[in-house]
Amino acid sequence: MGVRFFSLAPWAWLASGAALVLVAATAVLAVMGRDVSGALILGAVGYALVGSLILARRPGQRMGPLLCAIALAAAFSDFVFVYTRYTLVHSPGSLPFGTAFLWINTWSFAPAVCLTAFVLPLVFPDGRLLSRRWRPVLWAALLIVPLTAVGRAFIPENMGSSLNYRPNPYPIPAAEPVFAVILLLAVGSGLIVLAAVSASVVLRWRRSGEVVRLQLKWFLATIPVLVAGIIANDFFPDPVTIALGIAGCLLPVAIGVAVLRYRLYEIDVILSRAVLYAVLSVAVAVVYLAVVAIARGVFGVGRSLEVQVLATVIAALALWPLRGWVQRGVQRLFFGDRDAPYAAMARLGRQVEEAAGAESVLGSVAKTVADSLRLPYAAVELRQGNSWVPAAAWGLKPAVVKAFPLVSQRETVGRLLVGQRSPGEQLGAEDERLLEDLARQVGPTAHAVALRGALEASLAKRVAAREEERRRLRRDLHDELGPTLAGLTLGLDTARSLATSSTGCGHPPWTSWAWPARCARKSPACAARRRGWPLPSAAGATSWPACRPRWRWPPTGS
User: Fold this and answer.
1) Is residue 103 part of a domain?
2) What pTM value is reported for the model?
3) pLDDT digit string (tens) for 17-33?
């Protein structure tokens, strides 16, 4: 998992080339031996070509190297099988190493089967696991290859009807219980890994978006065909081999369409028609066989021309009313409520009622519209002035979308955007009528959501303006008024200190009217000086200079 892609690319190209060489050799042997099993090479050809195409068009895609590896494993298995049949069945002894290839044929299928059945669905469609916790599942899937090879390489068994029931050329009978346990362990591990792979596909479907789900649809659509072909090949080997080869080629083609996203959105159309024709074909076959069985059991008539014509007519008459019912069911399955507008509107109303808040209402609307008509994309945009603002979307937006206006109180408040089901498919008249009706129902909801959004925006602006005003006042108080008041206070304190130190008696000069009384209590010399009295004693003369101010204040005679 830690190997970089640029180191895998050359090996992937080499594996693709080797697979095509083995395919060519297998085709030559099949033509020489007139062996219909050569049709199995179609699967290897498909994997090799699709893997090479992904390598060329998507250099960083890990599915390319994986498909090339599957192509080489499948081509090797097909070459060994056809070589063995040609050497031992169609032209015995014509080519060397027939016994060795018979032994290799016992286990050569294991790599191709394990890579296709376990590893491929585990990492599809991007070539990566869901998380690191799925690495043990990948290791277990790869471990099945050596377990199967060891378990089948030396166990005594025959090779089946396709090789005339020839036995294993190199058995070890003494160790048969050991190989049986190893083979049982491989089968048990395969079942556990298969369950884990199925869980991985389900989780990837639930966690992924619309594009990945469409890719998984392409992949899963071919699985029933492959399973049916494998089961039928066990009962009818030769007639079904060609059909199995064609069915094996469908899987790489579907993977190429999914990975390269070429006409990705047409899967629903293809599946709907395939399901419709399959159901009708099964119904016709059942009616036909029932009529033939009744004719043979009741009337004793074999498969004569009259019975066949009667069975065909009865099947056609039974098919006529059945066709409409089946087609409506298939249309409902793949295209939603296009033919049942009331159901679509009722579902839309329930989604709006169950929405948790205004933010999720339009998201529920977009999802309901997309699900009701099986559309790949649906979105709601609200109008703000002359522009459109996306409010909710569901799916991946295609190149071409169609808009339906959302009107409330004769005013366009938004628009509903929907994408086409496929690039070449236009919306039908029934689709457009249903979308117009849904747009009328969505208009008041979009208007209410727009009003709520405008109200919330207005409240947010009001709160922001209030906070900005508070910050401005705080800044003014801190940067302007605060320093000014502090400066005034410091100036006043300085002036008070200077004035007090100039009088010498501890009283500021502007309190001269109170000097006589205050100085009389504290300094007799100062009081005598202010009143013009003579000094009370010679000792007071020494105190007189200390009471003299540095300037004459108050003026003389006051």
Assistant:
1) yes
2) 0.56
3) 999 999 999 999 988 88
